[in-house]
Amino acid sequence: MVDDFPIKNSKKTYRLQSIDGEGNCREEISFSNELAMGRAQGDYILDDPSVSRIHCLITTTDESIRIEDLNSKNGVFVRITEPYTLKSGDQFRIGKKIFRVVEK
Q1: β-bridge mates for residue 35, sequence order
Q2: Fewer CB within 10 Å of terminal CB in the chain, N or C?
Q3: DSSP class of residue 79?
Q4: What values do phi and psi take at 24, rounded to 5?
């Protein structure tokens, strides 16, 4: 389930933006605490055969937002093998969709 409010922690608030090849925002995704993404399971479903059933998990702490590949077949571009701390402006790709982290 995707909540109707941004990620909130004690210092920062984030949203994810789905962007096109030119960096333009196509969709903005708001959630709190964590967001599971996948082709068949999760809070945000991607209709893309290159995305695993449950692909990755994005979580927040008081100080950061992290992305973790959940043993997906095609990874999170650039393939990560351990949880990775994201910062505002970072971009990542899952399947054919590119996302950008935005501090609000």
Answers
A1: 58
A2: N
A3: P
A4: -80, 140
φ, ψ dihedrals at 6, nearest 5° = -75, 165
Measured distance CA(83)–CA(80) in Å, rounded: 7
- Give me the mean pLDDT over the 45-73 stretch: 89
Sorted by sequence, the CB contacts under 8 Å of residue 58 that are 6+ apart come out as 16, 31, 34, 35, 36, 37, 65, 66, 67, 68, 86
Please tell me the distance from the alpha carbon of residue 8 to that of residue 33, in angstroms, as a whole number.
Answer: 8
The number of angstroms, rounded, from the C-alpha of 97 to the middle of its chain's C-alpha atoms is 10
- Could you give phi then psi for residue 62, rounded to 5 degrees? -60, -25
Does the predicted TM-score (pTM) go above 0.85? no
The answer to whether the beta carbons of residues 38 and 54 sit under 8 Å apart is: yes
The model's confidence at residue 33, banded by pLDDT at 50, 70 and 90, is confident
Tokens for 103, please give them: 């501090």
